[in-house]
Amino acid sequence: MKCIRLTLTAAALMALGSVTMVAAHAAASSVTVELKAQNGSGETGTATLTQESGDVKVVVTLKNAPAGPQPAHIHSGTCANLNPAPAYPLESISNGASTSTIKGVTIDELLAKPYAINVHKSTSDLGTYVACGEIKGS
User: Fold this and answer.
1) Which of residues 109 and 26 earns the better pLDDT score?
2) Residue 19 reports pLDDT greater than 60
3) Closest to 125 measured CA to CA, from 30, 32, 38, 35
4) Is residue 66 in a domain?
5) How many domains are there within the chain?
6) Residue 8 lies in a domain
């Protein structure tokens, strides 16, 4: 009887540990995306995604960016194979920085399939991408 209790206790503790590990893994709280220059722009930087309740805050910082606004979006796909229709719009980047909030989305949802953040040259030249980075877990 004592052996059965020990076995059941050990099994319960192992199950509890597994649930805790899954919960910790499943709830990403922050991801940093490296933005690499495209089309000879020289613009590089990061986008930091932070979970805030049911929303994701996206802070973009670019080096060598112009002062004027540069539209930015999250697209389905990868930098090499980007769906041209934006999945989530971001605030335009001005003077190399922007902060956006994507409502009703989690980081885990963005990690579940390929997504990329891309930055356009300007509002008048949306066809030229100047920086891109893929949203991936660490």
Assistant:
1) 109
2) no
3) 38
4) yes
5) 1
6) no
**Is the pTM value of this prediction over 0.90?**
no
In degrees and rounded to multiples of 5, residue 20 shows phi and psi of -60, -40
Parent domain of 90: 28-135
Q: What percent of the chain has pLDDT over 90?
A: 78
Q: Which amino acid is at 55?
A: D
**Mean pLDDT of the region 16-23:** 40
| Amino acid at the residue 21 | M
Q: Are 78 and 70 in contact (CB under 8 A)?
A: no
96: left (phi over 0), alpha (psi -120 to 50) or beta: left
44 found inside a domain: yes
Q: How far apart are CA 111 and CA 137, in angstroms?
A: 7
User: Which residue spans within 39-123 are E strands per DSSP?
Assistant: 44-52, 55-63, 70-77, 82-93, 97-102, 115-120
Return the amino acid letter for 29: S
Helix (H) or strand (E) holding 132: strand 129-135
Q: How far, in Å, CA of 89 to CA of 58, rounded?
A: 11
By residue count, the chain amounts to 138
